[in-house]
Amino acid sequence: MDFSFSEEQTLLRNTIQSFIQDNYDFDKRQAIVKSEEGMKQENWKQFAELGLLGLPFSEEDGGLNFGSVETMIVAEEFGKGLVVEPYIQTVVTCGGFLRRASSNIKEKYIPGIISGEDIWSFAYAEPQGRYNLNDLTTTATLEGDNYIVNGYKSVVSGGPWANKFIVSVRTSGDQRDSDGVSVLIVDKNSEGLSIRDYPTVDGSRASEITLENVMISKDELIGEEGKGAELIELIVDETIAAICSEAIGAMKVLNDATVEYCKTRKQFGQPIGKFQVLQHRMVDMFMQYEQSVSMTYMVNLKLNEEYAERRKAASGAKVQIAKAAKFIGQSAVQLHGGMGMTDELNVGHYFKRLSMIENSYGNIDHHLKKYSSAE
C-alpha cells in the first residue's frame, strides 16, 4: 500500500512544525504549564487562524472537511511538541459528537469551536466505571421540556479550560446497560454544576464535576434519547486514533533524543552508544516505534469501517501504543540515567505524557478483552 502523504497533507505538517518550532520549544512549554491558567489562549487563537480547529468539520458547517489522516498529522506533530492546549478533547472528541448532532446544534455550537471562542471537554468517566463507558450513575430525568441531571464525573481532561461539556448520562435502564445511555450538552455556568480543578502528572489539567439538579433543555440532547452508547463508542474510537497519533509523535522525539545522547555521552573513553547492549536496546525502541506507527496508520484508515472491524483496529492499536509507550519511555529514562527524570530535561516530560496516554480510554488488559470479543 502507498502510505505517502499528499502535497496538501505535507503542507499541513510543515505548517504545524513551523508553529511548534516558533512557539513551543521546551522552555516555552514549561512556562505555559507553570502559568496560572496552564495553557496559552494566544496559541488557541492561532490554531483557529491556521484553520486547525475547523479541520474535521464539513464545509457546510464552516470547516475544511478534512479526514482522519489530517487529524492524525496534527496530533502527531502536537505530540512532538507536547502541546497542552486541549485540541483532541475539543476538536476530535467533542467535535465528533457535534458533527453527528442535529442541524440546530451544529449551527449553534460548531462556529464557536472553529473561531476559537469555545473550548469543550467530554465528561464521561465515573469512579466506579473503570473503563466501562456504559457504567453510569449520573442520571437525567425528563421533566417537561428539561432534563434534571444529577451525578458526578471524574478526571474530565481539559475541564478547567472548557466552557462547554458533553456529558454521558443514564436516562433509563440499569447502571451498566448499553440501552438507556444519552448524551447532553452542559454549559459550565449552569446552576447546580460545581467543579474542582487540578493539575495532572503530564502537565495538563483536569476536573472533577458534580451535578446537582442541573436543568438542561431537551434541545441539548445529541442523538436519540437512550441510544447514545453506540455513538460514544464511535467517538472514543476516533479519540483513541488521535491519541495514538499523539503518542507516536512523542515516541519519535524520545527515540531521537536517546540516540543523540548515546552518541555524545562518554564512559570508559568512548561514547556509550558503542556498547552493544545499548545498541540492542535502541534498536528495540526503534522497532516498537515503527510498529506503533503502522498500527496508528491502520486505525486511522479504518475509522469508517463496520463496527467490529473498527473496534478491533482501535483496540489493537491502543494495545501496541500502550506497550510501546511504556517500553520507549522507560528505556529513554534509563539510558539517560538519573537526569532522565529531572524537570530540566524534556525526556521525563515525554515519558509522563506517554504514561497518561497508556491508560487513557482503557489500558492494555481492557483492550485485549475488547479485541478478543469484537465480532
Description:
The chain has 375 residues and is of the alpha+beta class. The chain has three domains: 7-117, Butyryl-Coa Dehydrogenase, subunit A, domain 1 (Orthogonal Bundle), CATH 1.10.540.10; 121-225, Beta Barrel (Butyryl-CoA Dehydrogenase, subunit A, domain 2); 230-373, Up-down Bundle (Butyryl-CoA Dehydrogenase, subunit A, domain 3). Helices cover 51% and strands 16% of the residues. It is built from eleven helices and ten strands. The protein has helices at residues 7-23, 26-34, 41-50, 68-81, 87-99, 103-114, 229-264, 276-301, 307-336, 346-359, 364-373; strands spanning 120-123, 139-143, 146-157, 164-170, 181-187, 193-199, 205-217, 221-222, 266-267, 270-271. The strands form three sheets. A four-stranded mixed sheet has the order 1-4-5-8, with helices on one face. It has a four-stranded antiparallel sheet with strand order 2-3-7-6, with no helix packed on it. Strand 2 and strand 3 (146-157) form a beta hairpin. Helix 1 (7-23) packs parallel to helix 4, helix 4 (68-81) crosses helix 7 (229-264) and helix 9 (307-336) packs antiparallel against helix 10 (346-359). The protein is globular, with a radius of gyration of 21 Å. The protein starts with 6 loop residues before the first helix and ends with a helix. The mean pLDDT is 95.
Into how many domains do the coordinates divide?
3
Report how far apart the termini are.
26 Å
CATH class of the largest domain: Mainly Alpha
Work out the helicity level. Answer: 40-55%
The arrangement of helices and strands along the chain is: HHHHHHEEEEEEEEHEEHHHH
What structural class should be given to the helix and strand makeup? alpha+beta
